[in-house]
Every structure is written in structure tokens, then in C-alpha cells.
Amino acid sequence: MPMNAEPWFPSVIWNANTQGIDNSVLKEYAYKRKQEDLGRSISNYGGYQSNDIRPGDCSELDKLIEYLEQELNEIAVSVGLNPITVYNIWININPPGSYNHEHHHMNSILSGVYYIDAHESQGNINFMRSDGAEYHLQEEVINQVHHFNSSKTTYPAKTGALYVFPGWLKHSVDGNTTDKDRISISFNSGVK
User: Fold this and answer.
1) Does residue 9 form part of some domain?
2) Are 173 and 157 a contacting pair, CB within 8 Å?
């Protein structure tokens, strides 16, 4: 009789290609925000990160937040969490050469990124496991790369892509190797 497999403590990354969001309006808003807000530096190197954005600043952003909250709550239900809400959201503008150091989002249940204007050569997002498995899963042990034995995975930066992940999951963003800005919106969520 085969062993029962129970996937405890999984690191799930949800992803979708969104529809119905006017990215040109969000892009215009991002550059306007950059002119009005000096921003902050947390995990970004060489790029711009706005301070938190308040509802009502941009109707298209409010539409995106409404969509995010619907998706986040469907995820919450599927993994046995109470209803959650977006509690902070900010803009990232990463010009050529800029990137984001490895980090996690403290006090966030589900975090995520939505790409307003991006493509793969502008720097993909990387997720790393942080359970120490890399000390046990050396190259000679792995027969075939699998979700179970991987220590890192990468998702492409592309316009309209949405990635949602546990706030504790370490991640980084590769450097932008093009001559155009990579523009995204990041967010954190928690219990309502």
C-alpha cells in the first residue's frame, strides 16, 4: 500500500494574467506620483518606490484594488483563512540597472505584485525557499527538478501579470537590463 502524501507548509505562488485594467492610466498615474512623492527606499536599489497610496487617488487603481481584494479573498477561503483586505499598496518604477534585494513582507499574510508595464528582459521576480533545505538537497541528490526539491523559482515580469504569495516568502527582482522602466504595483494584505 503506497504512503500517504500530505503537503505541509507549502509555499504557494498564485498567478494570473489580468484583463480589464487600463495599464496606460496606471502608468500615467505612476509617473505623476513620482513627481509628487519623494518615495522611500526599502528593498529597491536604484529604483523608485512610492509611499503608500490612499484609496481615491486614482479610479483605475481603485478598480485594481477591488479586483485584488476579490482574488485575495478567494485565495483566503481556499487555504482556510479569514477574510483579508489590502492594507497598503505602492508603486515601483525600476529604471535600467535597478533591482530589488532579497526580502519578505513583514506583517503581511498575502503579498503580491502587479505589472503595469514590463517584459521579461526587464528583470524577473525570484522566490526562494527559506527552510534550510539547500543544505540537504545538494546536486547529487536531485534526479529531476521538482517543486519539492527546488530552492528557487522564477516568474516573468510581464504587463498584466499578477503574482500573489505568502508575505513570509523571500523574493528578489532581477536587474532591469533594458533602456526602459519596469513599472509595477506591490501590495500587502491582512485580516479585515
Assistant:
1) no
2) yes
Domain that holds residue 79: 14-191
The Cα–Cα gap between 118 and 60 comes to 18
pLDDT tens for each residue of 109-155:
999 999 999 998 899 999 999 888 888 888 788 888 888 888 899 99
- Do 186 and 118 contact (CB within 8 A), yes or no? no
How many domains, the chain? 1
In a domain, 100, yes or no: yes
Q: Does residue 3 sit within a domain?
A: no
Q: Is-above-0.85 flag for pTM?
A: yes
Q: How many whole angstroms separate alpha carbon 135 and alpha carbon 138?
A: 7
Cα(112)–Cα(184) distance, integer angstroms: 10
Residue from 94, 112, 90 nearest 169 by CA: 112
Q: Please report whether residue 117 resides in a domain.
A: yes
At 63, give phi and psi (nearest 5°). -65, -40
